[in-house]
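Data availability (excerpt). All sequences and predicted token strings are deposited with the supplementary files. A representative entry, histidine kinase, is shown inline so that the format can be inspected without opening the archive.
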Amino acid sequence: MRAIPIKSDVATTTSGDQAVTSNEFLLLRELSHRIGNEFTSVISYVSITASHSTSEDAKLALAGVADLLHRYAGVHRALQMPTCSTEIDASGYIRALCQSIQSARLDHRHINLVLVEVPLRLRSEQCWKLGMIIAELITNSTRHAFDDGGGTIRIQMSVSGSLAQCCITDNGSSSGLLQPGHGLKIVDALARDLNGRIDHQFGAEGATSVLRFPIDGEASRLTHGAWIGPDDPTVEDVQISAATAAPGCVDHPRGERAKQGRTR
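Structure token line:
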């Protein structure tokens, strides 16, 4: 399998195989790298402070803070932009991403994350954008769909021919009135970058977002009538928990309801 530098809107090329990345791509990579370094610095500072404390309660509290920061750093690493374009195991990547998000953002809110997966391989840049969409929609549900009673977010991946579909639902509550916020604008832009489309429905019994995109990246493959049903016998229902994924063993794109008038 040969990895090639990404040559889409984040990079330009010169003659031969040499790739010259754009300023925007370099800045985004540098920003992501610096955020990762900041996570490391803060975790180190908290750990040192805990070791110097004479209070057992303080040590325990600071250890909890360091652990949570480690979990958020894991989500950040999973969502880093890929540096090359190659085909990877999208199912394994999504599973590991969901496990990271469950651990960092959902466990303490008593929100369950269920993944229905199928075998799927995508280009690394496609997989990264799909991961960004999934992460943003999970964040929206976490912020806007649930109170302290918790709930369930379900992600169902399906494949039909050359089309892939990702359906994300939650069982929170909504008035059905929506004020589109930055989150949905980001999601819609990422869907367009995948040459796909995404539709949202918000109601009193939950929210549903359905993303459809061509696996081969060809926009002409997508039709408005394309829909993959929930009864595909090949799907596997996975309850996401700390035991359901081993992030170090899966491919990574880098190559290495709530209230009325809510904003999504």
